[in-house]
Amino acid sequence: MLSAVTGFDKGKIMTNRTANIERKTTETNIIIDLNLDGKGHYDLDTGVGFFDHMLAHLSKHSKCDLKIKAKGDLEVDAHHSVEDIGICLGQCLGAALGSKKGIARYGNSSLPMEDTLANVAIDLSGRPFCVYNVDFRAERIGDFDVELIEEFLRSFSNAGKFNIHVNVPYGTNSHHIAEAIFKAIGQALGAAVRDIGGEIPSTKGVL
Fold it and tell me: How far apart are CA 18 and CA 41, in angstroms?
C-alpha cells in the first residue's frame, strides 16, 4: 500500500472534475476516487505492491489525486486486478472529464530515466486505441509480470475512450523501463486533461 493522503481529507472541498466508481465482480472488488484538479496525492492499495508503485508515479506526475482500494483473486495471479483497475480508472477518467469542454485534449512526454527513454502521447479523442512498443529484458519485476503493463493500458484506454501511444526506443533495466513509462503517462495525461478554457477541442464539436 502506498499513501500520500493529504488530498483525501474528510470534508475537503473538491472541484467538480471528480469521479468515483465501485465495481464488484466474482474476481475483483474495486473502489476508485479520481480528482483531475488535484495536487498529485495518492492513496493506493491494490494488493500488488509494484503496481501501487507505478500508479503512484502516474498520480504524482499528472497532478491528479487518485485513491484506489482493490481486492482481487491474487491467489490466481494479478491479471484480473490489474486489468479491472484499468477498466475502472478509464471509466472514472471519462466521467470526470464530462463534455471535455475546455480541455487541452492532447498531451505528450519524452521522459528519461537513467538508461531508459519513454515516449508517451495521449489524445482524449473519445476513441480508444493503444499502441505499445516496449521490449523488456526480463519477464518479471519481482513477482510482477511485465505483460500486465500492456494489459492495464489497453483496459485503461478502452474504458476511457482515448488514444495512447507508448514507445520505449531503448532501455536495459526493466524497473527503469516500467517507471519511465508510468511517469511519462502521468506527464502526458496531466497535460491532456488541463483546463485551458474555450470550447470542445474538435471541429466536430464533440469528443
Answer: 14
pTM above 0.90, yes or no: yes
Write the pLDDT tens digit of every residue in 80-138. Answer: 999 999 999 999 999 999 999 999 999 999 999 999 999 999 999 999 999 999 999 99
Residue 92, all three cell numbers: 472514472
Q: What is the DSSP string of 2-37?
A: EEEGGGG-TT----S-EEEEEEE-SSEEEEEEEETT
Which amino acid appears at position 178 of this protein? A
**Domain spans of the chain, in order of start:** 2-193
Cα gap 103→162, rounded to integer Å? 13
Positive or negative, the CA dihedral 126, 129, 133, 139 is positive
Distance CA 95, CA 84 (A): 17
CA 153/CA 94 separation, integer angstroms: 15
Query: Which cell goes with 72?
Result: 482481487
Contacts of 185 (CB under 8 A, 6+ apart): 58, 61, 62, 109, 120, 122, 153, 164, 166
CATH code for the structural domain at 2-193:
3.30.230.40
